[in-house]
DNA sequence: TATCTGTTATACTTATAATATAACAGATAA
DNA sequence: TTATCTGTTATATTATAAGTATAACAGATA
């Protein structure tokens, strides 16, 4: 599991961290029950503050990705990740909408949009990373 | 063209404004050459500061959606919106990636994801709004 | 006892978002 | 000519979020 952060990015560090972990789970590089580094060691590894790591962990816990034991540490939720609910699908739709609206403005065809999505799915699920 | 803002949202107002205008263009409610309200009148209408409107306009101008004449006012770019470039497609892919990664984690099938996209495309292009 | 874990608290800096006024320059209509 | 509209620029202030810096606490463990 490699963490790559862009300190020049507008996206906050804790968000980038969350996404990297989520991507790791999607790629099956991180499996249910797998241990994650402690807030302190990961913070030290990356060279950031432990509170920034903690914020990412807490939010991922909140969303059901992680299980945190006060002394044992942090792990990918051993029961697996909660399935997509209707609420999740609605939030997803809300996030996709502006992306699709701009694509339409720029005359990007639905087929081309779908092809990009397909490529991402492929890369995450069967990708050779 | 109706502007609906959510002042409780985490998304900044100027961003919501940008998206509403982009969605208006996608829906063909706003056509190339169409005039937009002045920064002052729109700000007064919505009940926000003129600088917030100006920020949205400036950014939309920067991205090629709007044309701004110092005295004539603001209009949807009469030459049409710039087509999707390779750079745009790469940025789009970067934006889609975390959404798709989380969908995979939550066991949302690619077909279901595509169906959501299709519904949004439909709603924006042929939608009865 | 020493060291690890997450957790909590406090304080500080920085950047962004949003607002509040004010003024300027050019175009236009009364 | 005067008043009013346009975008633009400048300055200041407030509020919030992100990130950092220390410090301490409580429970588990070697």
UniProtKB/TrEMBL annotation, chains A, B:
The keyword Transcription is assigned to this record: yes
Signal peptide start-end: none
Cited InterPro entries: Tscrpt_reg_HTH_GntR, WH-like_DNA-bd_sf, WH_DNA-bd_sf
Keyword Transcription (UniProt): yes
Gene3D superfamilies assigned: Winged helix-like DNA-binding domain superfamily/Winged helix DNA-binding domain (1.10.10.10)
GO molecular function terms noted in the UniProt entry: DNA binding; DNA-binding transcription factor activity
Domain HTH gntR-type: 11-79
Keywords assigned by UniProt, alphabetized: DNA-binding, Transcription, Transcription regulation
Pfam families xrefs: GntR
Protein name (database record): DNA-binding transcriptional regulator YhcF, GntR family
Organism for this UniProt entry: Virgibacillus chiguensis
Upper taxonomic lineage: Bacteria, Bacillati, Bacillota, Bacilli, Bacillales
